[in-house]
Specification:
407 residues; alpha/beta; Rossmann fold; 2 domains; seven-stranded parallel beta sheet; 35% helix; globular
Amino acid sequence: MLRALKEKGYSTPSPVQAQAIPAVIGGRDVMAAAQTGTGKTAGFTLPVLERLSHGARAGRRQIRALVLTPTRELAAQVLENVRLYSRHLPLRSDVVFGGVKINPQIQRLAQGVDVLIATPGRLLDLHQQGAVRFDQVECLVLDEADRMLDMGFIHDIRRVISKLPERRQTLLFSATFSPPIRKLATGLLHQPVQIQVTPANQTARSVEQVVHPCDMGRKAELLSHLIQTNDWQQVLVFSRTKHGANRVAERLSHEGLMAAAIHGNKSQGARTRALQGFKDGTVRVLVATDIAARGIDIQQLPHVVNLDLPNVAEDYVHRIGRTGRAGERGHAISLVSAEEALLLRAIERLTGESLSRVEVPGFEPTVLSAPPLDLSGGRGRRPRSSMSNGRASRGPRAGTGGRARRG
């Protein structure tokens, strides 16, 4: 494993890795709050692989370590990391999720898997068909547990847990230690080591943040202007809706900017192709909804653009955490209309930061139909934020169209 890390160019652990790795190798349960880009995936995969490398291999239809993730993209990304770190180890790893045929997954699981990464719904389907057994599970990892709760997977998670051996190691990774996460951890973790590497909802200092005020109807035009004027070659754009993501991607493509949309209504094949194209440079602009963006892990992503502000203020932190990773500088741009003034206010209240406003010449906002973007007033839906009523919202998430489909 050290050889694999050296080949990858890793030499120094990140703060979350420095705390989590010794605890996991020591057999402790771990409850960690770590934002995207802090190296949390290696924080649990490296020590889990170390422990598994000293034990007996998985039997037929058995698994030894189970990693649950909220989305297909994140599951695929975790598998990529597991296989990278274990390339010189005699361990078998695989991934299962919905949206693709189940029979090939059944056939692969028949041989037994040391590390299985899965979305909850498809895993339960496979277990019900007898394709996978949980007798030999030594370790359970809940990755991005907060998002799994938000997507309505709590019942599936509890069903999976009820079928696992009581004597096992459990690792829970979440962006924050919210009350629902603490409630989930109670009874699930045994005297866990608690790790929190950054203050809750604090944005990375390596990310430069700016707001460009503009009219709602000119956002797509301004986005195209910024990409072409600044010659941005790799841009991740967040849209609040699936329809909006499609519309903007099509417009950019017509203008000669190779763009693709990624969201829950796209087939798994289309999502995989779009993400791969974005990584290898054939897709210049990837337009995503919040849910679909989970699992986008690009080491040096330079630009993130909020075409729409998220309805949930915490999602702003998740979004801009896609850039400025591993010590690299990042650039987060938000195109904000007067109608979104309350959403912007909620984000600034949550992060404790006042975002710089810079008007782009030729795209100055008009004030005929809406109040100016000065936060002294504004229209729009009341933002659903953890600041409201002292608790986090559990309503439908942006871009999901309500409760997410299983796995």
